[in-house]
Amino acid sequence: MVVKHTNSPALKEKSVYGVVAEFDRPEALVAAGHQIHHGLGYKKIDALTPFPIHGIDDAIGVPRSILGYIVFGFGLFGLLNAIFMIWYTNGYDYPLVIGGKPLFAWEFSIPPMFELTILFSAFAAVFGMFALNGLPKFYHPIFEMEGWERATDDRYMLVIEASDPKFDIEQTPRVLSELGALRTEVIAK
Amino acid sequence: MIQITKKLTGKKYWRSLDQYYQTTEFQDWLNKEFPTQAQEMIDEPSRRNVLKLMAASFALGGLTACRRPVEHILPYSRGVENLIHGKPLFYNTVMSLGGSATGLTARTYEGRPTKIEGNPDHPASLGATRGYHQASVLSLYDPGRMPNVRGDGKDSDWNGFTSYVQTLSGSLGNGAGLRFLSEPMNSPSFTAVKKHALTRFPAAKWVEYSPIHTTATAQPVAPRIAFDKAAVVVALDSDFLGLDDTTVVAVKEFVRGGRKVTDENPLMNRLYAVEPQFSVTGAAADHRFRMKSSEIAGFAGALLSAVQSQELKVVGQGNSSADKALSAIAKDLAANRGKSVVVAGPRQSGAVHQIVHQINQALGNVGPVVTYLKPASDQTRPQLDALKELAGEMANGQVNTLVITAWNPAFNAPADLEFEANLKKVANVIYLAQDLDETAMASKWAIPAAHYLESWGDAVAFDGTASIQQPTIQPLHGGKTAAELVAFVSGYKDLKAYDIVRNHWLPVVGGEKAWKKALHDGVIRPAAAVAGSAAPVFDTATPAPPTGGYEVIFVPSWSVFDGRFVNNAWLQETPDPMTKLTWDNAALVSQATARKLAVAMGDVIAIERNGRKVEGAVMIQPGLADDTIVIPVGYGRTKVGQVGEGAGFNAYKIRTSDTFGYGGGFNVSKTGRVYPLARTQEFEYQEEPKLVGFQEDVVRPIVREGTIEEFKKNPHFATEMVEHPPLKSLYGDYDYSKGQQWAMAIDLNACVGCNACMVACVAENNIGVVGKEQVARGREMHWIRMDRYYTGPVDEPQVVTAPIPCMQCETAPCENVCPVAATVHSPEGLNDMVYNRCVGTRYCSNNCPYKVRRFNFLNWHINEAEVTKMVYNPEVTVRMRGVMEKCTYCVQRIQNAKIDAKVEGRRWLKDGEVTPACAQACPSDAIVFGNVNDLESRVAKMKVSPRNYGMLAELNTKPRTTYLAKLRNPNPELQPVTAAEEHHG
Amino acid sequence: MADLAIKDPHVTPVLVEGNPSLHEVTNDVAQIVEGINRNVPVQWYIALAITGSITLLLFAMLGYLVATGIGVWGNNQPVGWAWDITNFVFWIGIGHAGTLISAILFLFRQKWRTSINRFAEAMTLFAVACALIYPLFHTGRPWRAAYWLLPLPNTHLWVWPNFRSPLVWDVFAVSTYATVSALFWYVGLVPDLATMRDRATGLAQKIYGALSLGWRGSARHWRNYEMAYLILAGLSTPLVLSVHSVVSFDFATSVLPGWHTTIFPPYFVAGAIFSGFAMVVTLMVIARWAFQIEHLVTIKHLENMNKIMLATGTIVGYAYATEFFIAWYSGNPYERFVFINRAFGPYAWAYWTMISCNVISPQFFWFKKLRTSVAFMFVLSIFVNIGMWFERFVIIASSLHRDFLPSSWGYFVPTWVDILTFLGTFGLFLTLFLFFVRFLPMIAVSEVKGMMAHQQMHHDAHGHAAKDGAKTHDASPGLTPVTGGGH
């Protein structure tokens, strides 16, 4: 059990981003997270994992994603967009008699209507997701963590931010260690 | 027409141009480039020579705007009467071909003739034309034309020739050694010049020769047959609807007389064709029998004795189907005394014509139907005798001066006369050359010939009606007319064609006013009397051609006639009506003969007789007489411009004076080589054994046909040929009941498949010529095509032809699929192409059930000579590559007519005020165009006929172009060949 | 595909062999990109030289075409479309496997997809890129087709596209498909790009860093990420089915016998999946051998793909039979003739090539021995690719060359330009692929790791799962890692 010495003068409380604990198994991460959140009542918790781990959301209280609503809205917009485009171009702006067919009809408009709905939804899904995640964000204090690279390889990190009211630069790392962290580290802002 | 008061200014004006005309640049272009232009059109369009052509292009370009005949038309500076810039001017003129004159109207833009139409007032045209006339305007702009005077094989000029003639005329004396060789004479003014020449040189001789004998030149007499008065026609080796005559009068009268069937009282004439080839006449026949040419005489004899004997029980001595039918035919003729006719073709000997005359006499048809007229030519003896004599004299040096105004005898004279070799034995040969051809190369002097559209002349029609040949443009290459040349050689210096013609006619018509009227009308009335004897003399002296072995029949070509149009791309690319062959001729043989020779389509065979041999590709055509080889002449030119060189093979090489029309005794052998033939209609069942079994699956109600009896029983037989579910549209239909709605109706019973519509369309719409390779690839551009379907047994087939323009479907499949709306419908029901919007997906063409859309796969105009571009119709866009195009119903004509109507304050056009090019050219008036909402219009009347049906209408395309079903009028005594149940595949 | 769905979790087949650690997996995949000890194998450069020059050939041919006109191809009247649209449909068809694997198999919870989806999606994008060349260039004047087909106001006549035209539907369907596939692919890449970033140094790190947008695997991010992935899968599934349906409308909505048939949409989609999987197998067999990742892309993966080929191939064969039956049953002479002509006419050779490659050859996959033999499936997948190309050629050329009026019947012969252009598209396809395997992780590492952890869990929770297998996912305690956000 390695506890890095943290109360050096260089690192004052207010300049601390938070403390991170490293686990080697997802189950351990989830158990620890559950204890920290529900047991000890920490609020500002985050988990950094190489792949999504279910249960962690409930364990550390991550709310449900609202992305679905955004996508639906944009999908609908795409559909209306298509209908208007076809009606305006072929039915209104430059009406032409083509094959004796009407200027506008829903029958021959279906394929573009469908495709534009999908297209707009897809854009909403992808860029909405990035927006909700606040990406791109090319710098984050956590990147400073020693051995961070394993967080996208085979380690599972639990972060408690210093802004958490219950955060204590002495206590919190110890708690985490007790919950089975391989090691903990205090990260500067 | 205007005559300018002071010629001086005009002369000055032109002289300066003449100097310009002599620029070395221009001369180089004319002399050097074109003889080396070989193969261009035959090969895939190459861009090699475009720059070379450009080099001198603007020289001509600069001239085009003002090359108007000096004598008549003022420069714009003076303001020409009737002329508005951009508006066409029409000049009546006349064209002679194969001894027959056809009155024409030339449309000119800023002094460029661009389109030829028939002159409705002319008896031999009646407003219609043949493809030759339509295409003749392109020959005017042929870059391969004789560019300048040539003397002793070197470039020279008119002055050089003048001095030569001065020295020569001294040596001519009374003309003992002087001979003239001309085309069959049908020009009064030229005949006058001839008389002058022969009076000046009493000992000189005049020979007329044309390699194609038409009814105008076949015999000492000119039979005039009023086909509209004949209820029964028996054609013996006669193609009177086709190329027996270059005029259209026979077609007009035959169709008018018995093929325009009315619904109220359906009457139809009956045509029996007995022939070795498969002519369009045979295609139109109600009963067609194939028979070797050599057997025709026997058949005619049997028919004669049959009609003479009271109980018509005689049967022919042969056992061909024709002989079996003989008594039935005889009965039919006898039942129609005084209103039937038997006609023999020009390839048949005088003896046969005499028998035919006797039959007609026995039937009392001479008079009511057949009359004999004085030929236009005053020549009394058979042409070939005169030509033979001339050749003999040339051979043994009796001729020291020969003036040739006939077209290219070195190429087209009978092979046994060795004309080309004999020309070398003549000291002074003066030749009026269209282009630098075989004869020009063998002559001492070659003078560029003036095209009929650029020179003065005249011609008299079969009934004596004379027409003035009016020029529409200055001679592009300073050409001379035959009359000018002969007059010049016989000492009439500086006698211009204009003076020759005018001096001849002014007294005849009586005064300036009448002269102007004659020019304006295009005909001179009253016609000269031409009534001949009722008991004509036939040339029975000439022995019948040899028989035995394979029989070869020499027929004129639909494309090149006798070879003079070989450099005419429009005609070369127009498929033969029956074989659908382009850019080549072929040795046509029947299936049985092909099997006997063990040859297939395209195999090259050698045809030989008495050491004279020619090699050519075989084409199998159903329905030919067995052991017969039909060869269109005129191909295989060696000295010719860029278009025609290398096309086909030269049948004249084996055409001797004893086998002039046809002849037996030919040996045929397989060479083992194969020659690619480019046909526009490829599919033949006999070529695909695997599919023959499924023939019923391709039996399609496309060209619908029935007998007149079936029509009487059930007038709606045509529409009832197809069963289909009710034609409902998903959206309901667009309302076309308002305004003028353009439509076309084509009477298949009238169409004889002569291709005039195709060439007219090409000329009117600037349609690109793609060349042989591209035709073989299936990229020909014709907006209207002539479909030909065989029906019945492969050995005794019948043929139907159908012109296929765009159907202008109201629910056009092509429009729906165009992604960029480049083809849309006009409120007047036209299926418009927007060239500058088209991106070229070709989806419309794929989705067109009629496949009438044409795509510019390459830029077809890229290697066109600048001079050729003068032929373009300025009213029609020249399409670039990557653009789809198709029949527009000649929308430019519709628009112009609407503008004119608007000027007169009308919004509704009168029926017949607009006529598309195809309909205007059609000799049989099969194509009718008009406004269907005008219930009085001809087209509206045709649309309500029970025979009217829409091709593939079961697809719910609602075609605007519809067809009147074809009818046949078989002799009840003979097994009807066609039945309504039998469709065409 | 239901028959292929793995119903019972505790009999989950081993999808990763040799039971490597997560770190080993990361290494195995990343090292393909980084190169063993950071140096690129020379074979890669050789391969690139070859495919690159073929690609240049493609550009040369297209240049010649644009300069001269469509006449340099063999197209004619009546065969207005020939190799151009044949190749277009061929490539689009191949482009279907990727999205299918990433979307449909995802929704079907097919864990085995994780090893191949990245690869297949890349193939989709490159195939679509090749396909797009043809609609653009088959007009001979791409500078017009390029933007007149889109509903952009143009200074030229101010005409708009005609939305009645299936070609315009195509423009929308194919471009949407290309865009969504690209997005889907990129979204899947982001976590792995982060992994690459954290392994890389210097410039590479900056580039991967920029591409991964600062991804750090936060639980909150994963939450939205999974949702986005699920939605994209849900959108792509109807999309992938719609694309080839719309392509088939080009033919189905025409009046041409042999084209005008309602069976086309499902028949085309099945054919597309068929050809797509064939191409994946062809390429995957090479890739797994070349990069020694047989333990990540196991025989099981390949066998499953072969099963799908067997299924879709049989569907395609059934469609052929139906076409013939309907043609006969309709009593429509034009329809009848087209099919008789297909089998016995001038293009019979093409037709029977198609039948033997597409209908007969996949039937060998009924035998486990054969569908698990790498050599055999490689050869057979190539046969299927050939067969599917011929299917498109037969549909297009043999229907066009003899339609309603026998007078306008013809025959199509390709020119050397046709042939070299088609060859060139393969050059482009492979070149893009070489770049892909060189610079991007060709296996979805994070998904594979998730899937491994999932198996791990199942082995641990064996007894528990055995009680109620199907519900295991939901029933298991909050310890269920999933691949790429499976629920």
Question: What does it look like?
Answer:
- The complex is a heterotrimer of chains A (189), B (985) and C (487).
- In chain A, 43% of the residues lie in helices and 14% in strands.
- With 189 residues, chain A is of the alpha+beta class.
- Chain A has two domains: 115 residues; 67 residues, no CATH class.
- The radius of gyration of chain A is 26 Å and the shape is rod-shaped.
- The two termini of chain A are 25 Å apart.
- Chain B is α/β, with parallel strands linked by helices.
- In chain B, the strands form twelve sheets. A seven-stranded mixed sheet of chain B has the order 5-4-16-15-14-6-7, with helices on both faces.
- Chain B is globular.
- The two termini of chain B are 53 Å apart.
- The relative contact order of chain B is 0.12.
- Chain C has 487 residues and is mainly alpha-helical.
- Chain C has a single domain, classed as Formate dehydrogenase/DMSO reductase fold (Up-down Bundle).
- In chain C, helix 3 runs antiparallel to helix 15, helix 7 runs antiparallel to helix 9 and helix 13 packs antiparallel against helix 15.
- The longest helix of chain C is centred in the middle third of the chain and has 34 residues.
- Chains in contact: A-B, A-C, B-C.
- Chains A and C meet through helix 1, strand 3, helix 2, helix 3 and helix 4 of A and helix 1, helix 7, helix 9 and helix 17 of C.
In short:
The complex is a heterotrimer of chains A (189), B (985) and C (487). Chain A has 189 residues and is of the alpha+beta class. Chain A is built from 5 helices and 5 strands.
Q: Helices and strands in order, then pairings?
A:
The complex is a heterotrimer of chains A (189), B (985) and C (487).
Chain A: E1 2-3, E2 16-23, H1 26-39, E3 45-48, H2 56-60, H3 67-93, H4 106-132, E4 156-161, H5 171-178, E5 183-188
Chain B: H1 7-21, H2 24-33, H3 50-64, E1 89-97, E2 100-109, E3 112-118, H4 131-140, E4 150-151, E5 154-155, H5 158-172, E6 178-182, H6 188-200, E7 205-208, E8 222-225, E9 232-236, H7 249-258, E10 270-275, H8 280-284, E11 287-290, H9 293-308, H10 321-335, E12 340-344, H11 350-362, E13 370-373, H12 383-395, E14 401-404, H13 409-412, H14 419-425, E15 428-433, H15 438-442, E16 445-448, E17 457-460, E18 466-469, H16 482-489, H17 497-510, H18 512-521, E19 550-555, H19 569-573, E20 581-582, E21 587-589, H20 591-597, E22 603-609, E23 612-620, E24 628-632, E25 662-674, E26 678-679, H21 689-692, H22 695-698, E27 705-707, H23 708-713, E28 742-747, H24 756-764, H25 772-777, E29 785-791, E30 798-804, H26 813-817, E31 823-825, E32 831-833, H27 843-846, E33 854-855, H28 866-869, E34 884-885, H29 891-903, H30 917-921, E35 927-931, H31 938-943, E36 948-949, E37 961-964, E38 966-968
Parallel strand pairs in B: 6-7, 6-14, 9-10, 9-12, 10-11, 14-15, 15-16, 19-24, 21-23, 27-38, 28-37
Antiparallel strand pairs in B: 1-2, 2-3, 4-5, 4-16, 8-13, 17-18, 19-25, 20-26, 22-23, 22-25, 28-35, 29-30, 31-32, 33-34, 36-37
Helix pairs in contact in B: 2-3, 4-24, 6-16, 6-17, 9-10, 9-11, 12-14, 17-18
Chain C: H1 22-34, H2 42-68, H3 83-94, H4 96-107, H5 117-137, H6 142-148, H7 166-199, H8 202-211, H9 219-252, H10 264-290, H11 299-330, H12 333-344, H13 348-360, H14 368-371, H15 374-400, H16 416-439, H17 445-460, H18 462-467, H19 472-475
Helix pairs in contact in C: 1-17, 2-16, 3-5, 3-10, 3-15, 4-5, 4-9, 4-10, 5-7, 5-16, 7-8, 7-9, 9-10, 10-11, 10-15, 11-12, 11-13, 12-13, 13-15
